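pasting for the record
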Amino acid sequence: MTLLAMLIGSGIGAIVMQSPRTHTAACVIRVDPPVDPNEIMTKAQRFPDVTPDFLGTQIAYLNSAGFLSAVATSVPLSSPPTLIAEQDGTTNLVTITGIADTADDARKVVDTATRVYSEHIKKMNDERAFQSLDAMGHVIDRMEDDMRQRGQSLTKPGDDLVQLYLQRTSLQVELARPPGVVIAEPTADRPSEGKLSMPALGAAIGGLAAGLIALTCAQLWRSRTGIITATDLVDDAPLLRPVVPLSRGSIEPSTARTLYAQLSPRESGRIVVVGASSESGAATVVQYLAFAARECGPVITDSVFHPCAEHAADREPGKIISDGGDLGSSPNLITFAERASHVVVVARIGFDSKNDLATAVAAMVNQGVPVSVVYGRGRPRAVDQPANAGQPASSASASDGR
């Protein structure tokens, strides 16, 4: 039941977390910090932390909602694209990754993002340079007016004015330069490798959750109904080990011999096997005990429904192993139990209740015979008797399969 719940939960989780197939493309660009107008005018050296600071602000801009909106506006798609910008370590290389419904759309997103970002850098640089040029132009015009008023020729400007001319020319050259964005690696498709897909993750989570819920519910149900879940000890009756595999369909010789060795060593007498319920597997345990007993001497198996004569003239004295069914199966059970040398009560794990087991044990103890308890696991099946290594014996009748 728990396994079935896990399979169902896995299917539901995979369906719930299934996402539409997407495609990924990426390119690598080199971003160079622009030349600051103040550097040109003052001839100052650039500080070493300028590049990291600049790239930090650019990564933030590339991952911003405003930049994504600008790209989405330039590339109309059926669904909004996804953009991711990542810096390659401490270098000035930046990887721009685009995710869209198709491979072509993913490449378009990346190409458009690169173009929009280049235009943004160009516009930002031009604005700063034009502001410096305007301010410088006002200063140059004022100095030239002063020279005219003093009657000086503009063909022989002073050193300050010459310096301003040179700085203005440098700024104009800077404006003519392309933006500081260079394609280091062209746009290409990128397969999504090494990542757990959402359906697989949903299946794992759904299966685990469903299994835990099913297991918890089963435990709660068994605790409330008193279903046997383990080989617990029972008052007034020793426990026989190991647990009998009821659904095996064949006898495990080692298990049969171990069970029989724990019973009374008498060569004759009747062993009655009683189930806590009609589906406990008493008939299977009879076959196990009969297999081991035949290795020691003559054995007859019978049942409360088809009893045999205990002292028939045509057979040797020996063990009789009887299938007693359960308490409500036959009125002959009490008679069988009174004449038994040993009674074995069988309880099936995961099926029989603790109350049924306790009732069966108490009823057998009241008959004044030794009582033991053995647990079985699985749904009872008819077993095939293997060839006996010990002394063979005839069997009066087979058990009816309970």
